């Protein structure tokens, strides 16, 4: 009997890392589909003739509907489970990505970016809930860091693959090819993935001797709380404000770095790829490293509160040098500074996402991540309009980099004031 239990534990342990790999590749695809517009922006701007403000509003269309997708899929994931919800999200955003090839106007791009935003809104609520179902608390930040590093790998692959595709076959073919990759992942997900059941969770979590995890696993069938109950919690506001203040900075890196390199550094489509590859390669280290820091501190006996916030403070301090990147003349020094800031963001993000599972039970997790993601998207909408207006009027990026440098420290202070001890939220049964 004992050997059978050990076998179940080992089986659950092995499969949860397979699950992590599936989440990683989904996030790679998510960010390749998201970033392709920024990479092709110089070509599309010349062909379609949009202004800085119009490009900013195309970004806003994605951001606004991404917020809707996050909020909606957050509830859908809690209702329908991760397998069906993730499949639906991937199908919607892959079709939307391919539809970019069929449009040729500012309005057309705004419409397909809106559809892309709705579909991509399902990625992180599904992935965070899946991680909470399969991973114990002590491994959660590391697992989140690993799958979240897919954003960086996607950002590395995108500039390495997309510009050559556009040069060889045209920008429309590039959208179709990159979008079709998601359909391949969808088939693998439906064949391979199975949701974690109660025995998987109890065996895996009991193996780490985490009583809180084991209790959460036993209460997995309790009803999901409504938005009204969640929005009244200080813990929800801590996560929400953390996302609202820092997500727009990452979107700025994704959508505007290619234009910054083109306009401020004079780099054309054939030469813009290598600096972006270097930036996002550095970022991969930050995503996994940020999760590793807090997971390591937890294994050493630190409290969840101290471990998460220490890791986030380290990341927030690593962002600060980007305030001065516009004054740097050497291209590769500037690339290193931006890479450090982007890596710190991803380390921050891995821990921020994990705080949601620290503060809330799994039955509420999809909705909480959706609410926080919506707040981050609203911040992205507002910041995108600011970016477009600043660049249209001044042509200078230094103010935008300075805002990004300070956002993380401000967010951490607010989060600490709202959740000084990071005790779990008390929800109605």
TrEMBL record:
The chain crosses the membrane at residues 15-32, 53-74, 86-112, 141-162, 168-192, 237-257, 277-298, 310-326, 332-353, 365-383, 395-418. It comes from the Bacteria. One of its GO terms (molecular function) is hexuronate transmembrane transporter activity. PROSITE patterns: MFS (PS50850). InterPro entries: MFS, MFS_dom, MFS_Na/Anion_cotransporter, MFS_trans_sf. It is a multi-pass membrane protein. It is found in: Membrane. Its main location: membrane. GO terms for cellular component: membrane. Keywords: Membrane, Plasmid, Transmembrane, Transmembrane helix. Residues 19-423 form the Major facilitator superfamily (MFS) profile domain. SUPFAM superfamilies: MFS general substrate transporter. This is Hexuronate transporter. It comes from Paraburkholderia largidicola.
């Amino acid at each position: 009997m004992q050997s059978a239990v050990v076998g179940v534990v080992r089986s659950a342990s092995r499969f949860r890392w397979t699950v992590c790999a599936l989440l990683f590749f989904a996030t790679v695809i998510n960010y390749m589909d998201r970033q392709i517009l920024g990479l092709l922006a110089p070509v599309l701007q010349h062909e379609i003739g949009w202004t800085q403000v119009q490009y900013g509003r195309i970004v806003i269309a994605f951001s606004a509907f991404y917020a809707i997708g996050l909020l909606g899929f957050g509830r859908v994931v809690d209702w329908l489970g991760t397998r069906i919800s993730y499949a639906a999200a991937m199908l919607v955003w892959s079709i939307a990505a391919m539809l970019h090839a069929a449009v040729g106007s500012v309005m057309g791009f705004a419409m397909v970016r809106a559809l892309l935003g709705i579909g991509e809104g399902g990625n992180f609520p599904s992935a965070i809930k899946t991680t909470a179902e399969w991973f114990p608390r002590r491994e959660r930040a590391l697992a989140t860091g690993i799958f979240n590093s897919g954003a960086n790998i996607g950002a590395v692959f995108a500039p390495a693959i997309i510009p050559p595709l556009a040069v060889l076959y045209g920008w429309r073919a590039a959208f179709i090819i990159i979008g079709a990759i998601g359909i391949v992942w969808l088939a693998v997900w439906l064949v391979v993935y199975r949701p974690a059941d109660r025995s998987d969770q109890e065996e895996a979590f009991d193996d780490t001797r985490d009583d809180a995890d084991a209790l959460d696993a036993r209460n997995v069938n309790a009803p999901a709380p409504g938005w009204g109950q969640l929005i009244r919690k200080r813990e929800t506001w801590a996560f929400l404000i953390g996302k609202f203040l820092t997500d727009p900075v990452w979107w700025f890196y994704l959508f505007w770095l290619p234009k910054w390199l083109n306009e401020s550094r004079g780099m054309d489509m054939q030469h813009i790829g290598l600096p972006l590859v270097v930036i996002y390669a550095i970022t991969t280290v930050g995503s996994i490293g940020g999760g590793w820091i807090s997971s390591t501190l937890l294994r050493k006996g630190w409290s969840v509160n101290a471990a998460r916030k220490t890791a986030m403070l380290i990341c927030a301090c690593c962002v600060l040098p980007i305030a001065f990147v516009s004054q740097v003349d050497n291209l590769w020094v500037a690339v290193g500074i931006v890479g450090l800031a982007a890596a710190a963001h991803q380390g921050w993000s891995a821990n921020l996402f994990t705080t949601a599972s620290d503060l809330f039970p799994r039955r509420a997790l999809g909705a909480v991540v959706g609410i926080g993601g919506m707040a981050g998207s609203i911040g992205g909408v507002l910041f995108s309009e600011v970016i477009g207006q600043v660049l249209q009027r001044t042509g200078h990026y230094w103010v935008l980099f300075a805002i990004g440098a300070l956002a993380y420290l401000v967010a951490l202070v607010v989060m600490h004031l709202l959740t000084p001890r990071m005790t779990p939220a008390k929800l109605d049964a």
